[in-house]
Amino acid sequence: MSEHQLRYGRDYISFALPDGLKLQTLRGSEMPALPDPAKTLREALADPIGRPPLSRVAKDKESAIIVVADHTRNNAYELWLPELFNQLNAVGIPDSRIALYVGNGTHRPDTDAEKRERLGKEACRRASVIHNHDCDAPSLVKVGRTDSGTVIYVDERVYKAELLLITGGITYHYFAGYTGGRKAILPGVAGRQSIRVNHTRAYDPQRRDFAAGVRPGVLIGNPVSDDMHDAATLVRPDMCVNVVLNSEKQVAWLGAGDYSYVLRIGAQYLDAHNRVPVERPADLAIIGSGGYPKDMTMFQAHKSLRHASLAVKDGGTIIWTARCDEGEGPAILAQLRALDMDELHEQLQRNFNLGSACSFSLKTLSQRLHLHMVTELDPAVVAGWGIIPHATIQSALDAVLPHLAADAAVMFAPDMSNLLPELAAEEAEPEEQVAVDTGGTQP
Fold first, then answer.
1. Is residue 238 a part of any domain in this protein?
2. Which residue from 103, 74, 58 is spatially nearest to 238, judged by alpha carbons?
3. Domain match, 323 and 398 both
4. Residue 21 contacts by C-beta under 8 Å, 6 or more apart in sequence?
5. Same structural domain for residues 305 and 197?
6. pLDDT band at residue 425 under the 50/70/90 scheme
7. CATH number of the domain within which 218 lies
8. How far separated are the first and last CA of the chain, in Å rounded?
9. Is residue 391 part of a domain?
10. Can you tell me whether residue 25 is helix, strand or coil?
11. Residue 271 neighbours by CB under 8 Å, 6+ apart
């Protein structure tokens, strides 16, 4: 027997697999932690990518707003955000004139405890105020229209900021391609209608599927990402700081400068380490969602399932572990769970949003694959998605392993949310080969 472990909420779970399996363990290549993220940030702000130094960008500015990610993202802010305050102090902007703005998008507001945990106590203490974004606030202002026609509304305080800095982490995103860069603006600080229209670009009603180019790891030719890029151009952030974390949630890469260049270079770094080749399509995949906060809801953890599906054969099986202490996620998931596919397609055409996109993905995957889920969710909720629920990973293994063929390919990924598996070229669909070959974004 071989022993294995993966993160599950804030804990770990362990399990054993019998010897003799054709097992491929998927992990990214090592990302060494930066020895001093604060020093790296200082150097990056002195010589940014595609922007003048912060000292010039901030010249004669008296106040600043820093947009930060919300409670669903861990960007190790406590290691480098205080230094961003220090650098703003050095160019003449005191703490009393620096505000933090949580880019919640359509997510719920962060609690005070979540702000302290995610941003660090020092940054929370030093900020003059910490705003939570409200995508329905009457104070949102229209800033223009993207090339695709999306009307962009953002918070007035962000748009009129003397000095606007956006921050975030770069990871794979199942329909925006990657997080990071432009995503701090749309959806981060945008209005609900702007976000909704942007997300509709992920769905093609003629294909009755995600639009061409909409998949993890694709920026160029991805209509969702292209639209986000245009929105950020309308807002014109002065500086972007993005990070890539390793599997231990340490800062492995940090870049500052123009939001598009920073994202492109950070995405290339991520790809160099976390695009992982798969020998052949798996018959069985056993995957972790990366633990808290990545598996706090089914909605968040779904990204790991989507990634795994790229390397599992039709009719194959996935054992998906996600604790989901906070339930399914957005309330709309419960409303859409009982719909059949025809009804869901009608819903997607009427009102495409994050919840309906996730619902569509879950239902599509449950039809193509045999899904087993190890979770704290109500078993009836899990079964409602066409997924077999389990309280323990051993229960799932007992249900699956006896039916596994002797020569079956088995894939294990303890943190599939951070990985992008890639089949050999002869195994990939033609459209997916084109999509995967576009690892950049607009300069």
1. yes
2. 58
3. yes
4. 404, 408, 410
5. no
6. low
7. 3.40.50.11440
8. 50
9. yes
10. strand
11. 217, 420, 439
Query: Using CA of residue 30, residue 36, residue 41, residue 46, what is the dihedral sign?
Result: negative
CATH of residue 351: 3.90.226.30
**Chain position carrying tokens 């950020």:** 232
On whether residue 431 sits in a domain, the answer given is: no
Within this chain, do residues 82 and 21 fall inside the same structural domain, yes or no? no
Q: Which residues partner with 423 through β-bridges?
A: 278
Q: Indicate the pTM of the whole model.
A: 0.88
Which domain range does residue 105 map to? 37-271
Residue type, 274: N
Please name the helix (run of DSSP H) or strand (run of DSSP E) that holds residue 80, with its range, or none: none
Per-residue confidence (pLDDT) for residue 84, from 0 to 100:
98
Distance from C-alpha of 178 to C-alpha of 169, rounded to nearest angstrom: 9
Distance in angstroms (rounded) separating the CA atoms of residues 8 and 321: 7
Q: Which residues pair with 349 in a beta bridge?
A: none
Tokens of 51: 């922007």
Residue with tokens 């000095």: 163
Q: How many domains does the chain have?
A: 2
Q: What is the DSSP string of 302-341?
A: HHHHHHHHTTEEEEEEEEEE---TT-SSSHHHHHHTT--H
Could you give the CA distance from residue 421 to residue 287 in angstroms, rounded to a whole number?
12
Q: What is the pLDDT of residue 186?
A: 97
